[in-house]
Amino acid sequence: MGTMGGELFASGAESGTEGGAVVEFVYRPTVADFEEALRARALKTAAGRVQVLVMLLAVVVPAVIFVLVVDLAPLLSGLVPVLSAVVMIVALVRGMRTQARQMFSIVEPYGECRMVADERGAVSTGERVSFTTEWSVYSGYLETPRLFVLFGGERASGVAVLPKRGAQDPADVERLRGVLGRNLKRS
């Protein structure tokens, strides 16, 4: 894979970044990366938690109303809302898996990816595509044990998934954490 595009930010990065270096990650995205990113969004961001809560309430509240309207045995009365919640949680997990596979299918053709970041933004290059993104495109980020997940802002939707396994040097994870911390809001 060539380095096409990686020099766009890196050319002036020596004086523009704290510590004088760019951060480079090389990785091949996986479905598991997107599943982890979607789970983290659902659990660690206010928007994700609200979305999950609204979906649960959309199923449990009608179940409770049904129990109140229909004369059921006491055991069934307690079981209907609980079973409704369980079914909704299973549906949420399956939905996230499906969404992760769909997101992965978009990036899979790019093959191995290379991301070079500095204080101005990031250049991502795949085997078939290259794009440059300023940090202002993102509204924020979160970190999981295996990923950095960047959220699209007003000018872009979706998420960018950056696996820590792609760090070229173990210190690059800490350097990227610093760059993200200085340029984006952490969720």
Q: Kindly report the average pLDDT value.
A: 85
Tell me how many strands there are.
Answer: 7
Tell me the Rg in angstroms. 21 Å
Instruction: Name the poorly predicted regions.
Output: 1-18
Strand order of the largest sheet: 1-2-3-4
Biggest sheet overview: 4 strands, antiparallel
H/E topology pattern? HHEHHHEEEEEEH
Query: Which structural category do the helix and sheet elements fall into?
Result: alpha+beta
General shape: elongated
> What is the share of helical residues?
40-55%
Alpha plus pi helix count: 6
- Beginning-to-end CA distance, first to last residue: 33 Å
Q: What percent strand?
A: 15-25%
